């Protein structure tokens, strides 16, 4: 009888240990992630949205001020730039960043955008663009071939004072779509004086800052995913009309190593940026 009781106690202890072990591991991870969050914010400034353990080399993904980078649990290194899975060759960083930076597409304030409907308008895309952005002008040329789409263009003048003046002139035009396309595709100056109510442009700039849009063009699709920088038209077609292209590889021509201190964060994608 004593042996039976002893076995029962051992079984009970084993069962308790099996039950508590995952909880203890989770609590430990929460503590590590909280410590990393505190350490990153102390060194970089700004706000860290999330810290997540990756399946790679014991590293933790840090989502900080709209950017992703990696560190270990002791913050002995900061690894910037894309992480590539050696087995699948997928750009893990780009895929994660797209998910982390996704929005609720239906909540965009479309009344502040220039709306173009072509064909049945079934496939929808929204873009934030500066009228003096070279990449945006190339995008306008590329997207001229699209049919059965609705394009919402949010005027997002961040490059210069002239960008703001151009945006006002286009917004105040009798036919905004015509004025936008004439300027972006053909280089024809808008004729409007820009003296109407242009509060929509200010609201768009405020929205862009909240969404951490730092370069133009930035595209959003109906699933909420964002694609910053120059996006090839074939990829746009895939995203709009069928198939799911792989995450966009961040372009290095916009990247720069951050400086330690408040507000300094690693950058990982490419487009025309505010100076």
Helix-strand pattern: HEEEEHEEHEHHHEEEHE
Got a strand count? 11
CATH superfamily label of the largest domain:
Glutaredoxin
**Within the largest sheet, what's the order of strands?**
5-7-6-9-10
Task: Please tell me how large the radius of gyration is.
Answer: 24 Å
Could you list the spans in which at least 5 consecutive residues all have pLDDT below 50?
A: 1-7, 20-27, 244-270
Total of domains: 2
Number of helices, counting only DSSP H or I runs of 4 residues or more: 7
Structural category is alpha+beta
Give the helix proportion (percent range): 25-40%
CATH architecture descriptor text of the largest domain: 3-Layer(aba) Sandwich
- Largest sheet properties: 5 strands, mixed
Which structural traits does this protein have?
disordered N terminus, Glutaredoxin, 11 strands, elongated, alpha+beta, 5-stranded mixed β-sheet, 275 residues, 2 domains, Nuclear Transport Factor 2, Chain: A, single chain, 7 helices, 4-stranded antiparallel β-sheet
Describe the protein in words.
By secondary structure, this protein is an alpha+beta fold. It folds into two domains: 2-79, Nuclear Transport Factor 2, Chain: A (Roll); 105-273, Glutaredoxin. Helices cover 38% and strands 17% of the residues. The chain is built from seven helices and eleven strands. Strands 5-7-6-9-10 form a five-stranded mixed β-sheet, with helices on both faces. Strands 1-2-3-4 form a four-stranded antiparallel β-sheet, sandwiched between helices. A two-stranded antiparallel sheet has the order 8-11. Helix 3 (134-143) links the parallel strand 6 (123-129) and strand 7 (149-155). Mean pLDDT is 84; it is low at 1-7, 20-27 and 244-270.
